[in-house]
Write a structure and sequence with these properties.
β3 and β4 form a beta hairpin. This protein starts with a helix and ends in an 11-residue tail after the last strand. Helix content is about 15%, strand content about 40%. The chain has 2 domains: about 30 residues; about 110 residues, Sandwich (Immunoglobulin-like), CATH 2.60.40. It is an alpha+beta fold. About 20% of the residues are buried. The radius of gyration is 24 Å and the shape is flat.
């Protein structure tokens, strides 16, 4: 009877070790399926451009004083938008937990105290690598004209209209007459 109890105890220990191993494996595979992104922001300041980096920067001293929050939005195929806000007083920030993949777009917004967008810029075709921080380069922030009531127009497309022999894997591109909020464009 004693050997039977030892076998049961051994089986119980092996079962618990297996459960622990599987739960750790699932957690690490989720963590490794996401990455991070940082960008450099260029702001127009009194007729000059001042490079401001959202990481490793002591402060946002040269930001327009009306900007109180920096918002980053990452979007792309096969993922929900990832949004993160940074108070200007933080002086830096990294957008994290972005699903790894290609063709990610980053929109950066400067918000005023009321939460309204007053500056915006974007970059596209970003590749997010699992477990890594991607430097998405420099985004030029443009002041948003809140009196603008004209809708944007498409200024160019690729592939061209009536193009033939276009590969099914070709990325469709459109250029607009003004900066677009990628999160508002529907597939």
């Amino acid at each position: 009877m004693i050997p039977l109890k030892r076998n049961n105890l051994l089986l119980l220990i092996l079962f618990l070790i297996s459960v622990l191993f599987l739960s750790c494996q699932n957690q690490s595979s989720h963590e490794l399926s996401t990455g991070n992104v940082i960008v450099h922001l260029e702001w127009p300041v009194t007729g000059q451009n001042s490079s401001i980096r959202l990481k490793d920067l002591p402060n946002f001293a040269s930001l327009p004083t009306t900007v109180t929050t920096i918002r980053g939005i990452v979007s792309g195929p096969g993922m929900a938008n990832v949004q993160k806000d940074f108070p200007v007083s933080a002086g830096q920030g990294t957008i994290d937990n972005i699903p790894a993949g290609t063709n990610r777009a980053v929109i950066m917004q400067g918000l005023d105290a009321a939460g309204d967008r007053i500056f915006q810029g974007s970059t596209t075709s970003i590749i997010i690598t699992a477990g890594q921080t991607t430097d998405a380069g420099t985004i030029t922030m443009v002041e948003i004209d809140t009196t603008d009531t004209e809708p944007p127009t498409v200024t160019s497309v690729y592939p061209l209209a009536d193009a033939t022999q276009v590969s099914l894997s070709t990325t469709i591109q459109a250029t607009f007459s003004e900066t677009m909020d990628v999160s508002t464009i529907i597939d």
